[in-house]
Amino acid sequence: MPIQSINAELCIGCGTCVSRCPMDVLRLLTSPAAKNQQSPCSAACPLGVNQREYHNLIELDMLDEAAELLAKYHPMPAITGRICPHPCETPCSRAIVDSAVNINGLEQYLGDYLLEAVTVKAPAESGHEVAVIGSGPAGLAAAYHLAQQGVSVTVYEREDNIGGLLRTSIPSFRLPAEVLDKQIDAYKKMGIRFVTGAKITDASELEAKGFDAVIAATGASKPLKLTVPGAEAKGITTAIEFLYDVKARQPADLTGKKVAVIGGGSVALDAARTGVRIGAESVQVVCLERIEPGHKDSMLALSEEIEDAKAEGVVIHTSRSVHTIEQENGQASALTLVECASVRDADGRFNPVLAEQPLDEAIEADFIILAIGQTTDATLVPAGFQTNERGQILCDPSTKQSASHLFAVGDAVTGPTTVVVAAAAGKRAATSVVRFLKGDAMTEGQSAEPQAFDVSVLTEQACAEISKFPRVERRRLPIEQCKTSFAETLKVFDWDEAASEAERCLTCGSQAEIQYQADCQICNLCAHYCPVDAIEITPERTFPPITAWG
Ligand SMILES: Cc1cc2nc3c(=O)[nH]c(=O)nc-3n(C[C@H](O)[C@H](O)[C@H](O)COP(=O)(O)OP(=O)(O)OC[C@H]3O[C@@H](n4cnc5c(N)ncnc54)[C@H](O)[C@@H]3O)c2cc1C
Ligand code: SF4
Ligand code: SF4
């Protein structure tokens, strides 16, 4: 039997040996141990997804296993794989070698595979009944993780369609309706029930129906209004209204219109790019922020969204605010602008500093879309839940418990955030509700901060051992087609692309261990490819004698 060992001082848990071993001898250690650290990507994902686990399995073409693992942590990967701002990619260790792994692209690939090929089953029901109010990502995630634990769930939604802002606002060129439909079908197959056209005004209605616990996930989609001279003119709408009309009602006729969108976040760019697609003559964005990634006053929209919008013909005026909305016969006709010297103060608080005098520049605009933020709508919060002065539902930040059997999650609690943050809150609430129903301790282990992998072990020398190869990007729809259709702009990876990109993952975090030493054939591949020379094999490689078989 070969004698081999992995030097714990040197091992960086990159997983290279695990993926190179043709005999499947090695594993990554997952039990708690001194060096058992979470990968930086996993620590940065609000859902705590363990990316390196399934990256490795994609590379090995074990897609069913990969998808089942992902489904354990993640209630909607096909959705976030398209629209998550991917905070997990920022600290990715691979960036030290060349560039971050395209975690979002791999998530989309596996999320789509999960919806097509794998049925997530829910265990037998425990006899407990829980109601969720609101079918946005926070409510859907809570329902999914409750169903996963055998709880019977009913989701109440005031609209006729399920999905919250995923359904009513996020444009289909970024999130096609078919993807959301398939995800909802998968939830229904798990046994989750949906009641639409059902606005809940009082939590006691649900108690009377016999529910053991209630989770409110009512969102924060009430648009903020602009207070400048001319704000009452005709031809002004909000991004929430405009996008809802385009997606689900009668879209505005923008033929020959000069559109101005006010705001510098994803919502503003979604409205602007939608305006291009429905035939506006021109689309201009006016925002306080700058296009300078890393700067405190940088635009909140992602760099790729800004680049896409510009490529589609949107003109962005940065460091500008609206001074006056000019009108002709009561109809908006132009915007007079004023310079914005600074957006956030030294503590990062929103505190714009505007010049006293307007600029001698105006932009023509007869259709104006406001995308300057949203807030909670207190009239949607059911009686029984306590709110603060901003209408946000009060709850324990760790357990999401609002009062005994009442829990609250998502934008309704925090104000506008992102899908992954809302979904993570839903997942957290599901854990708390199950503990509440069983009478277990609510807080235990719920607020522990993950211990992230220390990237300092990736020294220059260790990185030099890892072959560089470029990040695989998703293919884009040709720009002319983008401008005139709502077809999805980013194409999902095919298997070759996914496998190549998954191979770039260093699977950093826990260390490797030898699990099936008896199977080792001393081929030396693990030691050969290990970037930090952590594997020792004894005896040294000796070639087997030539036999009659050659
Ligand atoms: C245009 C736009 C683009 C965005 N783009 C992105 C993006 O690219 N990536 C990203 O991560 N995030 C994005 N977001 C943010 C993201 O959509 C939200 O953070 C997320 O949807 C919040 O989820 P939620 O479940 O808390 O609320 P919501 O999605 O708002 O869902 C709340 C649901 O509750 C229902 N409801 C409310 N009150 C009641 C009641 N009393 N009874 C029954 N039902 C009720 C509502 O009808 C709604 O369906 C975007 C938002 C907008 C507006
Ligand atoms: S949900 Fe977002 S943060 Fe989490 S792994 Fe996916 S892309 Fe990264
Ligand atoms: S290299 Fe892989 S495991 Fe490490 S941070 Fe990047 S995606 Fe995560």
From TrEMBL:
Residues 2-31, 510-540 form the 4Fe-4S ferredoxin-type domain. It comes from the Bacteria. The keyword Cytoplasm does not apply. GO terms for molecular function: iron-sulfur cluster binding; metal ion binding; oxidoreductase activity. InterPro entries: 4Fe4S_Fe-S-bd, 4Fe4S_Fe_S_CS, DPD_II, FAD/NAD-bd_sf, FAD/NAD-binding_dom, Helical_ferredxn. Pfam families: Fer4, Fer4_20, Pyr_redox_2. Gene3D superfamilies: 3.30.70.20, Alpha-helical ferredoxin, FAD/NAD(P)-binding domain. Keywords: Iron, Iron-sulfur, Metal-binding. This is NADPH-dependent glutamate synthase beta subunit-like oxidoreductase. It comes from Reinekea marinisedimentorum. The lineage of its organism: Bacteria, Pseudomonadati, Pseudomonadota, Gammaproteobacteria, Oceanospirillales.
